[in-house]
Design a protein that fits this description.
The complex is a heterodimer of chains A (349) and B (222). Helices cover 58% and strands 11% of the residues of chain A. Chain A has 9 helices and 7 strands, in the order ααααααβαββαββαββ. In chain A, the strands form 2 sheets. In chain A, strands 2-4-5-7-6 form a 5-stranded mixed sheet. Chain A has a two-stranded antiparallel sheet with strand order 1-3. In chain A, strand 6 and strand 7 form a beta hairpin. Chain A is elongated and about 110 Å long. By secondary structure, chain B is α/β, with parallel strands linked by helices. In chain B, the strands form 3 sheets. Chain B has a 5-stranded parallel sheet, sandwiched between helices. In chain B, strand 7 and strand 8 form a beta hairpin. In chain B, helix 2 packs parallel to helix 3. Classes of the chains: A alpha+beta (349), B alpha/beta (222). The interface between A and B is medium-sized, with 30 and 27 residues.
Amino acid sequence: MDGSRVAFRTLFSVAAVAVVTGVVFVLRPAAPVVSLGVIYVVAVVAVAVVCGLAYAVPVAVASMLTFNFLFLPPVHTFALRESENWVALAVYLVTGVVVGELATRSRRLAREAVAAETLRQSDAAKTAVLRAVSHDLRSPLTAIRTASEGLANPSLALGEAERHELLDTIRIEVRRLERLVENLLDLSRLEAGPAVRTPDLWPVDVLLATALEQLGPDAERIAVTVPTDIPPVTVDSAQIERALVNLLENALKFSSPADAVDVKVSAAERGVRVTIHDRGPGIPEADRGRVFEAFERGSTAVRGTGLGLPIARGFVEANGGTVSIAADPVGATFVLELPAAAERPALAT
Amino acid sequence: MLVVDDEPQIVRALRTSLEATGYDVDVAATGEQAVAAAAMRPPDAVILDLVLPDRSGIDVCRELRGWSKAAILVLSAVGDEGEKVAALDAGADDYVTKPFGIDELLARLRALMRRAAPSTAPVVELGDVVVDLERRLVTLRGDPVALTPTEFDLLRLFVRNEGKLLTHPTILREVWGPAYGDESHYLHVYVSQLRQKLEADPTRPRLLLTEPGAGYRLVRPS
């Protein structure tokens, strides 16, 4: 236990006895002094609840001695004239200790109940995670198995086109599995604590280029606009590239393959803004906070574990930026903002 | 060609594809076996997994580099950026990230083998871009491109190492001098400028490619 807590508890115990003593002193003309001793139980209970039994017992003894010394005849001595006063004091002490013990125990029980509930909730979260992950693992595995067994089966008369289709299925599903593994790794890194960053000065177009490269052929329908006078940002490139990949992948997933996804880079008040706009069904206002929570999918969700957006937000925030959803009549618009680098490079040479 | 990996399925897939391409393939499952095999029958290239049962692939890399001229291509896992960079520092020539595509791997190998005879031609054509290294002139589809001296030095380094992965520290050392070896501050900004001047779409570069977490590579546009 650290020193400041001991000090606080000691002070609280002394104050409790002092306050009750004051109250007894004030009430003395109104009631027989022996019966006022019961008020010390209040001090004992308060100390037991706030500080625990270890403080309640000394407070009970101190209360008895104070009451005896100040109020019971002969006053200002620890001697007692009447034996009834001894009995009364013993009763107060026992009551104080018992009540103190009960208060401590109920405090502990309450604490245990909270712990049990936390454990139950984290178990429920784990179950939800496992269910989502195993679904997302199993469906590509099934597709790969079916396609590869189809290719290997000599009794199937497959034409060239069918063989290509099955091979394509395998490639696409393998890619899905790879992305899932990457996302789980990222998430576990983010959950483990503040992500370790290796920040460097990056122009946003270089980060975007890497993100587009990682998205592969799907990225062809992304239309990018980057003006030339955008200031560079100081970020961990791998983290921001991953955030961009996840936001772009989300936009591609939730919009028709016939529609473009627009990416616009602009200078913002305190840095650089990247808006990612798709022409999909959009995100209902009620879902806009939820889509950034792990394993949540918006009500219009197609498929996926729902890991992409929380990871994007986690990495962007770790780099001092923000991700939000702008109100938009058509489709969804995600806005990523990154603070501009403090130092500007000299670009003269 | 020496393949070093302890996962039999990966070795099998690599061996099949490499032999089908016409390479002669030896296999090792541990670091010790790899060093012994490379000493017995010196390979032109080593494909080396960084995670081996007996010792780290980075160690093996450093040891091989001590006495072997073989090109070293390391296989690194997603998320192990640090390992990858350490292997490149220890003398590896290039890397591919697991899970990798076989086409990508073969292309990297071809580039590594070709590098044995670097070009010294003063004028290099890279698709629409023509670089005259002696006269420090660059043209894009016949039109001259104005490059700053640093931009040109950077481009020249890439052209002289066509196809090769150049790590951030290597580039900084070569272009800015040894004092800049540790911070890549200005490098990315200059790469962005070069792309804006030379690429048709700077956000979809075809000439000057990023190798995430490691460096840049200049390739001849196909």
